[in-house]
Amino acid sequence: MKNIIKFVNLIFVFTIIFVNAQLPSQPVPPGGQGTTGTGSQSVPVDMYIYILGIVAILIIAYFAKKYKTQKI
């Protein structure tokens, strides 16, 4: 069982390394947003990325604690 967990962790680490090993993209020329002009796309999630990360960590901690208290 421990070998399987180590193997899965190793696969995740190498997957993340290979996904992040991309060449940087070309800079976007200045211009409009969205589909009306050239330039960066307007994505509303970008404004909340830090909040979403914090909420995800809090939810994981909550359910981990809930599972731990039910298991005992």
Give a quick rundown of the structure.
With 72 residues, this protein is mostly helical. The protein is built from 2 helices and no strands. The protein has a domain at 45-72.
Note down, in words, how this protein is organized.
With 72 residues, the chain is mainly alpha-helical. The protein has a domain at 45-72. It contains two helices and no strands. 0% of the residues are buried. The mean pLDDT is 77.
Number of helices: 2
Instruction: Extract low-pLDDT stretches.
Output: none
Order of helices and strands: HH
Helix fraction, binned, reads 55-70%
From the N-terminal CA to the C-terminal CA, the straight-line distance is 22 Å
Average pLDDT: 77
What is the percentage of strand-forming residues? under 5%
Cα-based radius of gyration, to the nearest Å: 20 Å
What is the number of strand segments? 0
Main sheet properties: none
